[in-house]
């Protein structure tokens, strides 16, 4: 039996990512390259000046910069390159399966067609499966700061590509835009055969998590940190074994938690919540999935067994087939045995 460092342990373990906005993987270097070829202006003079601007007091300050960055994405090739860059990066981190979000309205509202966006992303994902061995699911997220009619229009636009999309989600500015605003469009989305997820309880109250559960009938909660404010809700989430896709570095950067030492993930594990580790918008928050695992491992002094539980939780919470899940879980148990 070999003993390896926690860094090497995290690097080597096969992982899945369940909460990742593809627009949030847009690294400044690629942003400048794509802006140049599309003759679009970025209001920063250099990569380092842009990176220095990544200091956020809250979710909204981040979203303003994130949407501005996404504005340079124009052609199918741009969406391909963005997605391919992400997949190449996480293959080095031993990610074997991804379930990623894209925000169609961020692009269709600027006159880019739904087709351009989805074809670019999808062909990179297909190439990733063939060439990098990374399987995937795609989640189309509605922007909650926009109205219900816009979400319905997006649902309509997605229908020709229904077979390429596994689920719908809900993201963007949370406070003031409760899940109830989207009850009808989620109902129609479920009728069309989509699974459903929603960001809830990131900045918004526990009440929004209740709404996501009862009105949107979600299969997973994105973030969900604020469930800890409501014991009855915690009990319900535990009973349901409802997955929560936590994003530790994002929570620090967006001031949801003061620092990683204050992150509630260990407390949530102790309560038997099905919590998972994810990177959200890695180009903006200082780290991809390994950096998220390592950050909490170090800050909270987590053991290899605890890391293994978190990784297994992610596979359990994924939409892989039961057979695939079982195979990955056995592989991970074996990895722990060989490296503990
Ligand atoms: N869009 C991209 N990242 C997000 C986050 N952390 N919360 C809400 N909407 C988002
Ligand atoms: Zn998110």
Strand-helix topology:
Layout: H1 6-12, E1 15-17, H2 28-37, H3 47-52, H4 59-70, H5 76-91, E2 95-102, H6 104-108, H7 114-132, E3 135-143, H8 148-158, E4 167-171, H9 183-191, E5 195-200, H10 206-214, E6 220-223, H11 231-240, E7 243-246, H12 248-253, H13 265-270, E8 274-277, H14 282-285, H15 289-299, H16 304-317, H17 322-339
Parallel strand pairs: 1-2, 2-3, 3-4, 4-5, 5-6, 6-7, 7-8
Helix pairs in contact: 1-15, 5-7, 16-17
Bound molecules: adenine and zinc ion (ZN).
The site of adenine (ADE) has 11 residues, from helix 4.
Mean pLDDT: 98
- Give the structural class: alpha/beta
Biggest sheet descriptor: 8 strands, parallel
Element order: H for helix, E for strand: HEHHHHEHHEHEHEHEHEHHEHHHH
For the termini, the CA-CA separation is: 8 Å
| Poorly predicted regions | none
Shape: globular
Bound ligands, each once: adenine, zinc ion
Roughly how many Å is the radius of gyration? 19 Å
